[in-house]
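User: Please predict the structure of the protein below. I'd like the answer in structure-token form so I can feed it into my own downstream comparison script.

Assistant: Understood. Taking the following sequence of 62 residues as input:
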Amino acid sequence: MTDNWVQFNLRYIVDYKKRRFTKSELNNSIRKAFEATNGKVTLASATIELIKIPEIKVDINT
């Protein structure tokens, strides 16, 4: 687990020409497995909301 994501480190043997396709298929399968829990398993993330940027006063006559 990380602050905002679940990270899986997988090792699998695949033809190098199919590595991106296979990675995409694995990601889709994992996502579908989470969705199949009907809300029993949910993913949350840390969220920061910036309301206002503070004013900064700079005095260059120092």
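That's the full token string. Residues 29 and 35 are 10 Å apart (CA to CA).
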